[in-house]
């Protein structure tokens, strides 16, 4: 018994060490953002910073990081809403359709979800260019949704398959239309799964780089990922400011992750194979 | 049967399905077909807006395949994909084996490592570019502390090292995903088999190679196939770290396609490279989907 106890504590210590090792890059990103230049180029580097400065942060704010983040939220939020509206009804239909061709549609979504974004970058750019949609949020939102919609349909279908039909039939007997039934019964029952899928859609679109990079050349509309890339390239690299920018770009997702951690982890292990 | 009745019984499902089908038709199926058309035309900055683009047949394909860059880029793609998947898998597997054990902090650590997976690849690439910095990067510092090197390594600017540089970053990024899938598989294994083997005196290696790996075969194959599919299309991480350079040392099919379209404005050739990727990905996706479908039956 005593040996087992020791083992358990030893394992916990090793686990914490693994966590520290894995998070070292993120820690370094964060602390580098608060270092004055001379400390940044100090050798050996100080693993725990002694001089903390907010100057890199100020420079990043002056470079418009908040505007870039706002654009990221506009793009990711709109993609998420659009994806959830389109995909939840589509997924519901596929879950309830008994026809064989419904499987072919599912297959199409499965393949679509695995396609490389760069494959769509060239044709979508030309299509949007000819529609006069380059340099609009709409183009980037639609482009991001081409990945999020098939992903969401596949995840949501499995979730809706688990909603008992009896509940829906009871609502129909009470006089609800099909649309009302789905809105008032099915979606609320599947709520926790739908939240996870929304969060995934948001995370994907927030992290998008290639579509915003290829379709937007106007700084005031670009999201934080493109902002960070341009910020790094625009000057002789000041690594403390760059790391500060990177931290601020990652921060919203880290916060979302910590708040919804349990659900995201469950969703990732449950849905990834389907 | 009147319309109202039909709608109520079955028709409503078609109405529900329509938006997603229309959306995917216009913004995924059509672009794939259009991409194929562009690849047979001459599309550059001058002809971009013109409705009547010149048809050039397979000329673009021939130009790409006979381009000396093609072989380099293709080889890089294979090395990057296999190298990433191999190490992500080994490390993810080791972590999964360890974290399925029952001890106080296992769930906490398991959950938090997944943070690496939600961080945008652009941010990950930027951070690793700093960590791998030649003169002031943390990686060179630690390596020299342990006397593993005498001269600082130019991870991302030396053509011989750049591939290793981007591999390190991408392996870091992919560990949580591999770990999560494998933990899912490991928790499903029947414990009684292991207990029986222990009574028979099996050691750790025997249990790993004769029990865990064979029983986990399906999860392992699925993880590796998904790993290949996801790694083959990595763009942002590489673009941010090296831009495909130095001298094409880290140029892979996605970065090359992007370069051709958006740096050289040769949209046709960009489309050709994207189409070649599409074919390769399609084969992998179908193999994967068949495998998963076979497993469920």
From TrEMBL, chain B:
Q: List keywords of the entry alphabetically.
A: Cell membrane, Membrane, Transmembrane, Transmembrane helix, Transport
Which terms does the UniProt entry file under GO BP? transmembrane transport
**Do you know which Gene3D superfamilies this protein is assigned to?**
MetI-like
Which residue ranges does the record assign to the ABC transmembrane type-1 domain?
74-288
What GO cellular component is one of the record's annotations? plasma membrane
Matching InterPro entries: MetI-like (IPR000515), MetI-like_sf (IPR035906)
Organism domain of life:
Bacteria
Primary localization class, coarse: membrane
Q: How does it sit in the membrane?
A: Multi-pass membrane protein
Stored SUPFAM superfamilies: MalF N-terminal region-like, MetI-like
Q: Where in the cell is it found?
A: Cell membrane
Q: Which residues form a coiled coil?
A: none
Where does the sequence pass through the membrane? 12-37, 78-100, 112-131, 161-183, 224-247, 267-291
Q: Which family does it belong to?
A: Belongs to the binding-protein-dependent transport system permease family.
Database matches in PANTHER family: BLR7065 PROTEIN, SPERMIDINE_PUTRESCINE TRANSPORT SYSTEM PERMEASE PROTEIN
Q: What is this protein called?
A: Carbohydrate ABC transporter membrane protein 1, CUT1 family
């Amino acid at each position: 018994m005593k040996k087992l106890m020791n083992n358990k504590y030893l394992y916990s210590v090793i686990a914490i060490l693994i966590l520290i090792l894995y998070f070292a890059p993120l820690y370094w990103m964060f602390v580098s953002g608060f270092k004055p230049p001379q400390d940044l180029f100090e050798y050996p580097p100080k693993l725990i910073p002694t001089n903390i400065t907010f100057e890199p942060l100020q420079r990043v704010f002056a470079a418009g990081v908040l505007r870039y983040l706002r654009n990221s939220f506009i793009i990711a939020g709109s993609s998420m809403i659009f994806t959830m509206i389109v995909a939840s009804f589509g997924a519901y239909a596929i879950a309830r359709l008994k026809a064989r061709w419904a499987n072919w549609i599912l297959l199409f979504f499965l393949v679509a979800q695995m396609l490389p974004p760069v494959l769509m970058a060239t044709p979508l750019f030309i299509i949007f260019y000819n529609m006069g949609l380059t340099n609009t949020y709409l183009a980037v939102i639609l482009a991001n949704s081409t990945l999020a919609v098939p992903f969401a349909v596949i995840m949501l279908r499995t979730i809706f398959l688990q909603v008992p039909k009896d509940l829906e039939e009871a609502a129909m007997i009470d006089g609800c239309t099909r649309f009302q039934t789905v809105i008032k019964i099915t979606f609320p029952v599947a709520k926790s799964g739908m939240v996870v899928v929304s969060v995934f859609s948001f995370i994907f679109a927030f992290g998008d780089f290639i579509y915003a990079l290829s379709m937007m050349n106007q700084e005031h509309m670009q999201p934080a990922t493109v902002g960070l890339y341009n910020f790094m390239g625009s000057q002789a690299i000041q690594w403390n400011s760059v790391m500060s920018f990177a931290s601020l770009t990652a921060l919203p997702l880290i916060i979302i992750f910590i708040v919804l951690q349990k659900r995201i982890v469950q969703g990732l292990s449950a849905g990834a194979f389907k | 049967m009147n319309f109202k009745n039909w709608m109520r019984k079955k028709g409503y499902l078609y109405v529900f399905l329509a938006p997603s089908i229309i959306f995917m038709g216009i913004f995924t199926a059509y672009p794939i077909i259009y991409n194929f058309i562009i690849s047979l035309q001459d599309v550059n900055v001058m002809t971009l807006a013109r409705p009547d683009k010149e048809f050039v047949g397979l000329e673009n394909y021939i130009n790409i395949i006979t381009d000396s860059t093609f072989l380099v880029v293709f080889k890089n793609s294979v090395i990057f994909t296999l190298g990433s998947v191999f190490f992500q898998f080994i490390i993810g597997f080791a972590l999964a084996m360890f974290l399925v054990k029952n001890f106080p902090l296992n769930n906490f650590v398991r959950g938090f490592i997944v943070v690496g997976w939600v961080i945008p690849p652009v941010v990950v690439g930027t951070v690793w570019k700093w960590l791998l910095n030649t003169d002031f990067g943390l990686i060179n510092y630690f390596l020299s502390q342990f006397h593993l090197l005498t001269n600082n390594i130019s991870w991302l600017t030396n053509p011989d090292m750049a591939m290793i540089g981007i591999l390190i970053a991408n392996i870091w990024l992919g560990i949580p995903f591999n770990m999560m899938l494998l933990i899912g598989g490991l928790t499903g294994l029947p414990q009684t088999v292991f207990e029986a083997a222990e009574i028979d005196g099996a050691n750790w290696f025997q249990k790993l190679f004769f029990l865990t790996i064979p029983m986990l075969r399906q999860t392992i194959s699925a993880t590796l196939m998904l790993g290949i599919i996801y790694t083959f299309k990595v763009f942002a991480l590489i673009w941010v770290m090296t831009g495909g350079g130095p001298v094409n040392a880290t140029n892979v099919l996605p970065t090359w396609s992007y370069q051709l379209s958006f740096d050289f404005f040769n949209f046709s050739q960009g489309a050709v490279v994207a189409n070649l990727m599409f074919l390769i990905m399609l084969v992998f996706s179908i193999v994967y989907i068949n495998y998963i479908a076979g497993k469920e039956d």
